[in-house]
Amino acid sequence: MTSTAGRLAHEQERKDGTGTNEKAVKFCQQDYESLRQQCLQGGGLFEDVCFPAERKSLGYNELGPYSSKTRGIVWTRPTELCSNPKFIDDGATRTDICQGALGDCWLLAAIASLTLDPRILARVVPPGQSFTEDYAGIFHFQFWQYGEWVDVVIDDRLPTRDGKLLFVHSEEGSEFWSALLEKAYAKLNGSYEALTGGNTIEGFEDFTGGIAEIYTLSEAPPQLFQIIQKALSRGSLLGCSIDITSAYETEAVTALKLVKGHAYSVTGAEKVNFRGRAVQLVRIRNPWGQVEWTGPWSDGSSEWNHVSEDEKSKMNHVAEDGEFWMSYSDFIKHFSKLEICNLTPDTLASDDVGHWNNYQFEGMWRVGSTAGGCRNHAATFSSNPQFVINLEDVDDDPLDGEDGCTFLVGLMQKDGRKLRRLNRSLQTVGFAIYKLPEEYKGCSNVHLGPDVLLRQRAVAMSSTFINAREVCDRFRLPPGQYAIIPSTFLPHKNGSFLLRVFSEKKADAGKLEENIDAEIEEEEISESDVDPHFKDIFKQISGSDMEVSVFELIEILNNIVSNRSDIKTNGFSLETGRQIVSLLDKDESDKLGLMEFHLLWNKIQKYLDIFQSHDTDNSGTMSSHEMRGAANEAGFHINSAVLEAIVSRYANAQYAIDFDSFVACLIKLEMLFKMFKALERGDSGKIELSLQQWMCLAVY
């Protein structure tokens, strides 16, 4: 319950603007400025209790507390390592980033990309930090994490062995921003070891909040060169690499001086006139700058002799050390993979570049309610969370000349690196896209059922279902409304995700979710409407006072259901009985009279019919995935969040709901709706309670 309350509070904070780069979430509730001031006033250096200078911060397996690799490690401050440490000395450059004993070269390549753009660097590395002015042994960095920016505070005690930094370090040894950045990222992910192995694109995303596309160049789409050009015009970050087939090939240099297993950046894409024909060229940058391509179009190659001076000047064909041109055909032949990180408009302050329109939504898959699995699982597929995108305007300059609406969809799972410590892996995930039927056009307050999703084919799907942090694909569809259904491959798998949509032209996007509402039929009857036989039975069971107490009610209900073989039940509980009495007791006697009992009887008959109609396998219980439809039939419109709470509260270990739980749930829903409507001010959709009122209602 407290975790649910925390999640709801977090959702409210997001609405108030918390989570932007300007108003980042404080990781571990640590506030950099207040902690720094405390240290300055107290005269001591900051020591981070949330990421202590201990073995457990190093790792859990290879760098675990009992590993030989962690012996002899001393946590040392930069002021103890050199006489004049610098945070950033004369600007951040690629020589500030040298790999240590940790297998996180993917992260180093992403950090190196930060040095290309001071504006992006300043978002991750807040300015004004140093080892001189008001130094207190405390630093902070900001990272994008699953839809929000997070401010991470660290102390500057770094792992060393024999007086040297163990992990990332600068070439000259006196500059420490990259080592401290790595430590902050390790804290965010639980340990240094959690950073081993990865994809540069993950770092790109966490440093920018952008969305990543990955292209296998041996299967390059026909318009990839134009995609590269458009990405560069939008200020996107582009990386490329050559796959290795074994560890022995890491950093191996090819005959034409390309380095295998090494992260390069793509910095330009142009066409030149070469001997009367147009040739596509791409500009590549080696972050380390030592080795350059020596093939066609490299610096000083003969091809440049046939290019006009104007074009050469425009292209700056003799680029800085480590940067070179090559033909696009050679590029897709020699490189294996291209990664594009498309940036959000808030990252791009310049109006000189085009902007994507972006939308993001958080969601969860929960066993028994919203974890429906992929389309292969027809019985549960429609239970998955659903989202809608409305594409109206076609692209201005379609890559192949045909009209359409280009957009990206990215499905990202949360906390994959933290799960490693628990020996748990990511789920296998993907998504499907469906054309919204005409009858639902313009509606977002619906949840598409199997009658809609199973009677049509998906118009598009993710390229794969994969157990990776993110699956992202580019699509182009005709204008229209489309439903996006993210799912795990198998049903009944818990997980949390972020769904992001980037569109070339403005597009409306949102959740497909029913509005919470109730259509409660208030039955009006008089004593004359009650069947005489029913009256006689009531007299027998109620006694001389003609009222049924909660204890008598439970006994009556359990006697009735125990004699039925078509429904399963563990018996009505005293709590359910009290809720029934509370709902129907008009005169506040804490008992049910004839009319009140008659209303209850009619309700139970109605609920029994609904229950049996949704017990599709005649097992005597109802699958929790049927609860949304059953509640709807009873007059209660609920969304996924409410459904998750219902399943958590009323389903058994096999995620089945028996009859007494079903009745208890519907009685509870009716009570909650009526309470809310009684306390709601106008049609605001909100209520306000004092602590006493809240406690009395919650306990009742």
Fill in the keyword field for this structure.
27 strands; five-stranded antiparallel beta sheet; 700 residues; six-stranded antiparallel beta sheet; Jelly Rolls
Summarize it.
By secondary structure, the chain is an alpha+beta fold. The chain is built from 20 helices and 27 strands. The chain folds into four domains: about 1-210, no CATH class; about 210-340, Cysteine proteinases (Cathepsin B, Chain A), CATH 3.90.70.10; about 355-515, Jelly Rolls, CATH 2.60.120.380; about 525-700, EF-hand (Recoverin, domain 1), CATH 1.10.238.10.
For the largest beta sheet, what order do the strands appear in spatially?
Answer: 7-12-8-9-10-11
Q: How many beta-strand runs?
A: 27
- Silhouette: elongated
- What is the number of helical segments per DSSP (H or I, 4+ residues)? 20
Total tally of structural domains:
4
- Rounded to the nearest angstrom, the radius of gyration is 31 Å
Helix fraction, binned, reads 25-40%
Structural class: alpha+beta
Which stretches are low in confidence, meaning pLDDT under 50 for 5 or more residues running? none
- State the oligomer: single chain
Q: pLDDT average, as an integer?
A: 88
